[in-house]
Amino acid sequence: MNFIDSIKAKAKADKKTIVLPETEDLRTIQAAEKILKEDIANLILIGNEAKVKEMAKDYNIEGAKIVDPDNFEKFEDYANLLTDLRKAKGMTYEKACEILKKDYLTFGVVMVKTGDADGMVSGACHATADVLRPSLQILKTAPGTKLVSSFFVMVVPDCSFGAGGTFVFSDCGLNQNPDSEQLAAIADSSAKSFEQLVGEKAVVAMLSHSTKGSAKHADVDKVTEAVRIAKEQYPELNLDGELQADAAMVPSVGASKAPGSEVAGKANVLVFPDLDAGNIGYKLVQRLAKAEAYGPMTQGIAKPVNDLSRGCSSDDIVGVVAITAVQAQTNK
User: Fold this and answer.
1) In this structure, which topology does domain 3-140+304-329 adopt according to CATH?
2) What is the pTM of this model?
3) What number of CA atoms fall less than 13 Å from residue 246's CA on the CB side?
4) Which pLDDT tens digit goes with each residue over 152-163?
């Protein structure tokens, strides 16, 4: 069973309710039909019921619940909650009502906050900042988490490296230039995400253009310090660095460049030193190796909210909904 099929099987075994706020985008409607047909999750679609049904006239979304903020029975409760959560920032009840009626993403996040939904997926027609801003303002970070970050699950065909060609790459979508402590926190979150979704033990490589001192530069120092911090703060992690990508993944290269390392040549979680490297790296693997790239998924938010690429397909949305549902299963 491939990665996404195993995720869908996990999602079906303990179905969660996922909210999709971007009902003005046809890809959302197409994905909803597939999700309901495959019985992956219960769905809530936010929008005017007549408009949603008109958009979906050629698709079967009968099993989805359509919630219109303009006549939702819990609207006043939601407005009061948003007012209370953001009053220190000047939020009034009137402003909260205005936001909730116009901004379906914020409405969806409040729905997750109250427990009326278990997670949210959006971003097909919104920027990442629009997705994450209300998530961080309303849901906050998860207990014990120092940093919200992002990751991709990369599934590389005909690949013997990683977990049968499956990797977690991070951070490829959120933190521009993390410092050493932030890199260590990203490594910890990424290892947990890998084990939750892939079901195998995480082997974490902190990547650099240097392996074990082969180059001298402040950028290398940042990674070696991140390794020191991670081993001190997260001693349970199977982690090492600094490692070049080939030393991290290829057994023969790892044995040559980093003899004695328990990670070199075996890594399945790759932590990139900055957003440039991570974003470029995942896109090269996706396009040149024809890898499946699921993400950017977020990690570290109190409840699962995941962003989509604006170039996503309806099948991409289905996959991210399945992953979000599995994330929600451990968020109790």
Assistant:
1) Rossmann fold (3.40.50)
2) 0.87
3) 6
4) 999 999 999 999
